Amino acid sequence: MHELLDVPYSSFQEADYYIRVSPVIQSCMPNVTLRDLRNNGGRLLELVANGESLTVTLDDRPIAELRPLSGRALPAATLLAHWRRLPPIDPAAFRADLDRTIDTSL
Known about the structure:
This protein is an alpha+beta fold. The chain has a domain at about 5-65: YefM-like fold. About 35% of the residues lie in helices and about 20% in strands. The chain is built from 3 helices and 5 strands, in the order βββαββαα. Strand 4 (about 55-60) and strand 5 (about 60-65) form a beta hairpin. The two termini are about 45 Å apart.
């Protein structure tokens, strides 16, 4: 198991706020303690809303992951409106592009 380090987290306004981060995942998914979640839940959820993923730990063990929800589905009318604005595609030119790009010998 990797040693956890206390490192400053630049997304927070307070300069003295530190989170515990494993060196292996330090750059991609910070750990936050359950206490951090309880005391700073609003700010942590703002990070998640802005695209961050966080791992919640209890006694240095990961117990949960907070990550942004995937995009919401668009209504059918919106999708059709987008589809109608797409440029027309010439099937023969499209096929020629595919044949030039894809190696069919595989």
